[in-house]
Specification:
- The chain is mostly helical and about 170 residues long.
- It has one domain (about 5-170).
- About 55% of the residues lie in helices and about 0% in strands.
- It is built from 7 helices and no strands.
- The chain has helices at about 5-10, 10-25, 30-35, 45-65, 70-90, 125-155, 165-170.
- It starts with a helix and ends with a helix.
- Bound molecules: zinc ion.
Length: about 170
């Protein structure tokens, strides 16, 4: 039986794929272990790799017969893209500035001219720890209200909205 879209929105599998894809771009820090070169915010922070990940997730989901595998691919792309969007909106003080967001279509680095979030230090000293604490508090102050609004909007279905799960329950008694 196919899964209804309303069920998929509450799916733990979809949530795990979305969250995993949303944090995955920062795995490019680990590339340095392979060749000693800093690859952070280069190709690993691009829509090209995000599209490749989405296709891989979709093919993997189809291989194990997950219903609507393209939905999981879109969830991966959405999570990945949210990371790029949020990184575009922060202050960047480590050259090269910005993200190679549109690779492989262009090698240019992009950065929002209107930063919203603070930069994150990468050294381990008290000054950096204090700065990162403030930056994290600022991010939470901005993002938590959005998260709460999204959660509350999700919890209240619109009157007359299609609810496949409820209809199936009513049909099956
Ligand atoms: Zn990042």
């Amino acid at each position: 039986m196919a899964t209804a879209p309303s069920d998929e929105l509450a799916s733990r599998r979809r949530a795990a794929v979305t969250v995993g894809a949303a944090v995955a771009p920062d795995l490019d820090f680990a590339w340095r272990l392979l060749d000693g070169v800093n690859h952070h915010q280069a190709q690993g922070h691009s829509i090209g790799v995000g599209l490749g990940l989405a296709v891989a997730v979709m093919l993997g989901a189809a291989a194990v017969q997950v219903p609507r595998p393209w939905g999981l691919g879109l969830a991966a792309l959405g999570g990945w893209s949210s990371h790029l969007l949020l990184d575009l909106l922060n202050v960047d003080t480590s050259p090269p500035m910005g993200l190679m967001a549109l690779w492989p279509f262009t090698d240019r680095y992009f950065k929002s001219p209107w930063p919203v979030f603070l930069d994150i230090g990468r050294t381990l000293n008290w000054r950096t720890v204090r700065h990162v604490t403030v930056a994290t508090a600022w991010e939470l102050a901005i993002l938590c209200p959005l998260l709460i609004a999204a959660w509350r909007g999700r919890a209240r279905p619109r009157a007359g909205a299609w609810n496949g799960a409820r209809v199936r329950e009513q049909i099956s008694g």
